[in-house]
Each structure stands twice: as structure tokens, then as C-alpha cells.
Amino acid sequence: MAGLLRKQYDIGVNSWTQVNLPALTYLKELPELALSDTASLEIKKLGKKSSYRMYVCGITPYDSTHLGHAATYLTFDLINRYLRARGSEVNYVQNITDIDDPLLERANRDGVDWRELAEQQIDLFRADMVSLRVIPPAHYIGAVEAIPLVVDAVKELTLKNSIYEVDTDLYFAVRNDSEFGERSHLSAEEMISIFSERGGDPLRQGKLDPLDCLVWMSQRADEPGWDSSLGKGRPGWHIECTAIAMKYLEPTSANETLIDIQGGGSDLIFPHHEMCASQARVLTGRELASHYVHTGMIGLDGEKMSKSRGNLVFVSQLVSSGVDPMAIRWALISGHYRTERMWSHELLGKAQLEIALLREALSKEQLAPTDTLIQSIINALSNDLDTPNVIAALNSWSRETINGSSGGELTEVRAALDALLGLRL
Ligand code: ZN
Fold first, then answer.
1. Can you name the CATH fold of 2-295?
2. 154-185 burial: b if 16+ Cβ within 10 Å, else e
3. What separation in Å is there between the alpha carbon of 411 and the centre of ligand 1?
4. What is the pLDDT of residues 371-388, one digit of tens each?
5. Which of 42, 87, 244, 280 could make a disulfide contact with 288, Cβ separation 3.0–4.6 Å?
6. pTM for the whole thing?
7. Which fold has domain 324-421?
8. Ligand 1 centre from 413 Cα, in Å?
9. Residues 127-147: tens digit of each pLDDT
10. How many angstroms is it from 241 CA to the middle of ligand 1?
């Protein structure tokens, strides 16, 4: 069975269709981007660089793409677009956890082959990203194809005396990172409780510390496993991202931190990003990211949106019911990325009306001044992606244009909407 699995995944997982970005040639300079960093609890500038390294944790392909996922990838898409508009390159890497307990559990529950479920959900995710006009990552890497990288990382951690065995599984000793826990600001009790809720096993007998995390799980009966020098098994979740980031973002010693941005939803702050940062520090002696950027969760009609409540709203369902993907984009960025936001019929309806107003404005012969509008958009984005202000600026510009104001340039505003906001109207 293992041979068959490897063969299927040897080609790797492809990312999605490239998005063409119009040049913003008339802009002199965009201010440096300032972003919130979970570790320092500060809004800090990213610094002027010719290229940036950004890692955003991808999906586990069993229920893609709900609006919480979409909001997260749209946030990092805005960052990607802003940095590119400044003339920098962005090496953007995203993983897909295409083997993990939740995927196997869902496949078992539904009586389908886990590989088919993963493939089908990855296809859906890619189609959703294309319809939302999200710039694809330069490297889109599956956990299965990353197994050799994980094995190497575990071996290196072993040389640093940070790996031990519990039965036939391998664990990473988190206390070997003297800064463990400092990025997520939680008490020891909170860490243990959240660890247990999010896939951890604090109570397992034989662990040195309840928070030590699994890096290699030996094959269980009726579960897939891959041959390796660590024995036959599969990778743990956290080490998967650490190993992929270390390989595909090619950190160099020229920078203060290994990468610039480690990103994902706020439910990844602990344990996932704390574990990745600890593993990276033990491997290299350096901090993983200058900015740990986290997006707030999306709720539905006043309730938390979650698998267990069964109230997830999917991008593909909205799009197939005829909703304009640009309205989904607009509605999701109308709130600030760090806040917990609610999705509702009213929010979508408001976005649709505002987009209709903007389309009407763009169809006028005379447009209200566009240089001030574009400057307002840029200033708001540079300030920790203040998208509510971007939307406010667009709404006032639409009204001014419809009321007869003039002096703007259609090509300029269209290019800015497209390049900076991903809105092609
Ligand atoms: Zn990750």
C-alpha cells in the first residue's frame, strides 16, 4: 500500500492559476507595510526589502473552503499584493496537510478513501482561490510529498538531543527551546487545555513534558504509513510546516529572522505556530519569523462557525448559487482581519450594493479624482491592513463620482483596485 501512496503523490500538488497583476507605474512610493505581530503584541513595520518570505498554513483537505479559510487567505493575499506593488518579490509558501487524523476520521465516517477525499477537497480549494482571485503560492506543498524533509528535520533535531521515543512514536521536547511559549502569551494551564483541544495529547504516559509534540507517528492498524529511516509511519502536523518552511523559503543568515511572516488563523497561534517556531529555533538557533500574523475567526449570524455546529458556509456553495466572488471578497475585507467577524445575509447584501455603486461610478464618463482615492487606499492598507477604511474611501468616491465630481482616471483606479485589492469589476 505504501508504494502505491508514494507513487500517487510523487508528482506533488500543483498550486492554482496565476493572477495577472497590473503595474502601478504612476505611483512614486508606497509606505512601508506595518502589521500586527502576535509575539511582540505590537504593530511593526516589515522593513524595506527587495524580497520577503511568507509562510501561510494551508488547509487539511476535508472541508474546504469555508469563509473562515477564505478570510485568512484573502488577508495574506492583500499583504502579498501590497509588497509586490512596492516592487518587492514575495516568496510565498503554503502547505496542505494531506495526511492527518481529521482527514482520516472524516474519510472513515463517510466511507470514502482518504486520498480521494483529499484530492477532491484540494481541487475545490484551488477552484475557490481562483474565483476569489488569490495569488497562488510559489510553492504549494503537501505533507505526503514533504515526508523526506520531515525525516531530515527529525534527524537534525535528534542530533540536538530534542527527540525522544514514546512507545514507537517520536516526540519533540519543547523545553529545549528556552523561549517556548513566549510567542503565544498563555499560562501553562491554558497551554495544556488548548493543546488538548487542538490535536495534542498532554496526558499521554511516557512524555517528558505534557506539551511535547508528536513529530513521527508509527503506523497504526488500518492507517497509511510510509517507510523511512524513522520507521514506517507518518509525520506530525507541526514538524510538517517547520520542514516545508525551512526548505522552500530558503532562510539565509543575512536576515535577522529566518522568515518575515508566519501566518494563519488565530486558532493556529497555539499550539501550531508556537511549536513550529520552537522547532525552528532548536534547529537553527534563530527566531522563525519577524511577524506572526493571525486572522480573526468568522462566525455566522452571531454564532461561532465550526465543523461541530455544522454551520460552515462554503465559498463554492455561494459561488454556485450565483454570488459574485468579488462580493465575497468585498464582504470579507469590509471588517478588519484581526477582529472576530460575523458573516450574514445582510453583510453580503451590503457588499453587493456597494459593489453595484462602484460599478455604476466606474461606468461614468467623468470620475471623481482618483489620485487621492488611491492614496487613501494605500495609506489604509499600509496601516495594518485597515480595510474598513479602504471600503469607506471607495464608497465615498463612488458617491462623489455619481454626484458629478470629475478629474479622475479610469485606468488608474481600475489598476489600483485590481493590483492592491484583487477586485476586478
Ligand atoms: Zn502550518
1. Rossmann fold (3.40.50)
2. bebbeeeebbeeeeebbbbbbebbeebbebbe
3. 39
4. 999 999 999 999 999 999
5. 280
6. 0.96
7. Four Helix Bundle (Hemerythrin (Met), subunit A) (1.20.120)
8. 36
9. 999 999 999 999 999 999 999
10. 5
